[in-house]
Each structure stands twice: as C-alpha cells, then as structure tokens.
Amino acid sequence: MPLSEMNDMIAKYSARLPLPQDASVGPRPREELVVLLTGSTGALGADFLAALIGNNRVAHVYSLNRSPNVVDRQRVALERRELDPGIVLSKKLTSLEGDVSKADLGLSSETFDELKRTVTHIVHNAWRVNFNAPLSSFGGYIEGTCNLLRLAATSSHAAQFLYTSSLGIAQGWRVEDGIVPENAHWRPEAALTFGYTRSKYVVEHLLSKAAKSGLPATTLRLGQVCGSSATGAWPTTEWVPILVKSSIALGCLPLHDTILYWLPSDTLAAALLDYITTQEPLPELLTIIHPRPIAWKDIIGSISDALGQLPIVSFPEWFAKLEAISKNASAEDLERIPALKLMPFFRSTAHENATGRSRMVPKFESKNAQKFSETLRNEPPVSHEHAHAWVNYWKRCGFIPSQSAELHINSKL
Ligand SMILES: NC(=O)c1ccc[n+]([C@@H]2O[C@H](COP(=O)([O-])OP(=O)(O)OC[C@H]3O[C@@H](n4cnc5c(N)ncnc54)[C@H](OP(=O)(O)O)[C@@H]3O)[C@@H](O)[C@H]2O)c1
User: Fold this and answer.
1) What is the mean pLDDT of each run of 10 residues along the chain (413 residues)?
2) Can you give the pLDDT at residue 387?
C-alpha cells in the first residue's frame, strides 16, 4: 500500500513535468550566475544564502520564501546562524514572497518573467522537515517542485535545477543489500520510514525522469549536516543538541556504537558553490556525505571534554535513565531533558546498540559528489575542534548552561 502510494504519486506528478521539447537550450553563462533559492529562511538555506552572496561568480540571488515578513524572518535566520544579518540589504539580493505550489509561484507576471529571463540556477531547498506528516500532505511540495522545474526548463538560460533530498530515504537499507547507489533507482522499501522520506523518494524519481529526458535536473542527497565549523551553529531543535542538553541533566552522555558521515553546514554550502560553478554537466544525483567518516565514540569524547568531562555510559544505560524519568516527567523535566519528547527515536537507538545493529551502517556511493566538489574531496575529518565549537555555540545561545559549575548543578536530578 505505501509503495503503491509512492508509485501513484510519481505517476501523477510525472504528468506535470516539463516536456523535453518545451525546454530552452541555453546557453548558460559561466560567470555572472543568477540563482533562485527557496527555503533561505531555514537552517541550511541561511548558510546557502550567505555563501551565494559572498561568491564573486554569483551576480544576483533571488530568495523565494512564503509570506509574511520575509526580510525580517531572513534577518533572524541569519542572526541565529551567527551569519551577517546585513546580507538582507545586499544589492545582490532580491527577497521574494510567493507560493511555489502555484503555477506562477505566487509572483507578479513581471517578476515571473524576470526570473525566466535571468536565472541560471534554481536551488530548491524549501521542504517540510516533519517526520510525523503523511506522504499525502506533501502534495503541494511536490507540485511546487514541478512548477520550479518548469520554470528552470523554460528559462532563457536552461537553468540548472538542484534539489535538496535526504539520505534518510535510505534509512531502511540493509547492509546485506550492498552499497547504497548514487542514483534514484533502488529498493523503494528502504524509503518507507516516514512520509517525509517517501516524499523525497517521489521527488528523486521525478528529477531522475526529468534528467533522463535531457533537462538539467540534479538531486543533492544530503546526509546528516552538523554545526558549522566556522561558528559551531547547529540548530537546537535537532536530535544531537537535544541529546547533549538532556545528557547534562542526566549526568552522562551515551556511547552509540556507530560511524558518522556528518558534514559541517558551511562545508555543505561551499560544496553547493562547487556544484553551481562547475562547467561540466552535473549527473542526476549526488550523495553529499563526509568522505572521511568518524566514530561516534571519538566525537562524543570531545563533547564530554567540552562539557568538563561528563561521564560516558552505554546507550542502553543512558536510555534507562531517560525512561525512568519519562514515567513522571514534569514540565520542568521536559524543558531540561528535551530527549523526553523523542522517546521512540532514542528507544530504537538504544535497541540498535543492545543488538549490535548500530554497527551495521550501510556504505554509500558518493563518487559523483566528490568528483564535482574540491571542497568535499579536501574536507578534513570532523574533530575535537568542531565538537568544542558546537558546545560553545549552544552555550552562547543559552541552550545549555555556560559555566561548568552550572553544568554540574544541572546534572543533579
Ligand atoms: N539539516 C539537515 O541535516 C538535512 C539533512 C538532509 C536533508 N535536508 C534537507 O535540506 C532542506 C533544508 O533543511 P533545513 O534543515 O534547513 O530545514 P528547516 O530549517 O526546517 O528549513 C526549511 C525551509 O523550508 C521552508 N518551508 C517549509 N515549508 C514551506 C512551505 N510550505 N512553503 C514555503 N517554504 C516552506 C521553511 O520556511 P519558513 O521559514 O517559512 O518555515 C524554511 O525556509 C530540506 O529539504 C531538508 O529535507 C536537511
């Protein structure tokens, strides 16, 4: 049933894809690039925007976000990432409010025509990152992708279309099935975990169809993005910061027996620039993960160090402490221990550790992503310095206590 729902969606939205004969044939300039970016008010989008504005080969950026108050919300998003909020006043930036689920993107005909005439690249990054939403609720997002793809195809410069997908779509992949290939064609069962991952599967297939019919469409399949190596900024709503804050209150950090392909957000933004400025045609899919994975035990050791040697225990032991509190959790507990709101996720991680399954991380083909990105090829492993930068960022934004004395008081349950 879920598989047929995905296939039905692929069939339904394939009819909305631009036809190869509708496509403009370029030429696309090599300098003076003009980029349309969606989702720039989000975590990754703010990093992408700052990188695009700062790059000499990018002449102009149109950001396209939903209303209201897009300029104010953009400023806040940049500030939260500790990026220059003055970017919103840059002459290189036009901030648009619109609705990509509409054929005209909710823009005036003048603005729509201006985009059609000028854009050389479309980076479609806006998506609902919600693991509880069913696939059926992503219809407007998939429709929006087709609308943007049509704009790309019919634009004067045959704009290159780039879409941010997620490696989460391979969450159900079994090591026994071999390496996860760097293309959209593999076991759909692996993508079934959430409505969110199913929606990404549908879009990857639509883009693959578009690419095979000759349109310049590329999926950027992203692995876990960690905090920026420049600022340490890692959104406090994500599971790792939640785990760290909760561990301070629990008095210990968990040892997760696994390896990590985490890529810092500023590295990802720099890799995006590599993909935008390359002069070679991009393949239909790039799996963007760190080429030099690291062990969780190393990074959690560094986080422990940054927190004044917080003890490390096995994941099941850590989870047992969490579960004990969950039975009578007060509002104050939920505030100090936000992991209480993600019990099913941490329960399954504890179970994977207890059964040894956590070690069975599949390998991912990522040759194309590296071939087109010097940044990715040269990226040093995530290290002690990164971990300290994340912890300092969480302290600066008041997410965790800033003094080690407070850290210790906090850990007395
Ligand atoms: N962060 C990661 O580790 C990671 C890993 C893999 C893939 N990704 C993918 O990367 C992309 C960005 O992720 P993120 O972590 O930056 O997410 P995020 O912080 O939640 O940002 C999501 C962005 O999408 C916009 N958006 C959501 N629903 C929208 C709608 N109906 N109409 C218009 N805009 C809408 C948001 O706008 P508002 O400000 O208006 O809400 C925001 O700009 C997503 O496609 C995500 O699947 C992220």
Assistant:
1) 88 90 73 96 98 98 98 98 98 98 98 97 96 93 97 94 94 88 85 90 96 94 97 97 98 96 98 96 97 97 97 98 96 97 94 90 94 98 98 98 64 48
2) 98
Peptide bond preceding 68 in cis form (omega within 30 of 0): yes
> Is 129 inside any structural domain?
yes
* Within-domain flag for 233: no
Residue 126 Cα to ligand 1 middle (Å): 5
Instruction: Give a yes or no: residue 232 inside a domain.
Output: no
Instruction: Return the pLDDT at 359.
Output: 86
**Residue identifier of the C-alpha nearest atom 35 of ligand 1:** 126
User: How does DSSP assign 197-214, residue by residue?
Assistant: HHHHHHHHHHHHHHHHTT
* Atom of ligand 1 at shortest range from CA of 225: 3
Output the residue whose Cα is nearest ligand 1's atom 11: 125
The whole-number pLDDT of residue 255 equals 97
pLDDT at res. 23: 72
CA 250 to ligand 1 center in whole angstroms: 31
How does strand 294-295 pair with strand 259-260?
antiparallel
**What is d(CA 79, CA 66) in angstroms, rounded to the nearest whole number?**
19
Fill in the DSSP letter of residue 275.
H
Residues contacting 355, CB < 8 A, separation 6+: none
What is the spatial distance between Cα 98 and Cα 104, in angstroms, rounded to a whole number? Answer: 9
The predicted pLDDT at position 159 comes to: 95
For 322, residues 6+ apart whose C-beta sits below 8 A from its C-beta are: 246, 250, 337, 339, 340, 343, 346
* Ligand 1 pocket, residues with Cβ under 6 angstroms: 39, 41-45, 65-66, 73, 125-129, 164, 166, 222, 224-225
Same domain, 13 and 157: yes
Q: Nearest 5°: phi and psi at 295?
A: -85, 140
Domain count of the fold of the chain: 2
Query: 371-398: buried (b, 16+ CB within 10 Å) or exposed (e) per residue?
Result: ebbebbeebeebeeebbbbbbebbbebe
Q: Are residues 284 and 207 in the same domain?
A: yes
pLDDT score, position 83: 98
Centre of ligand 1 to C-alpha 26, Å, is 30
Task: Please give the pLDDT value at position 143.
Answer: 98
Q: Which of 163, 203, 222 to mutate to test the pocket of ligand 1 (most atoms within 8 A of CB)?
A: 222
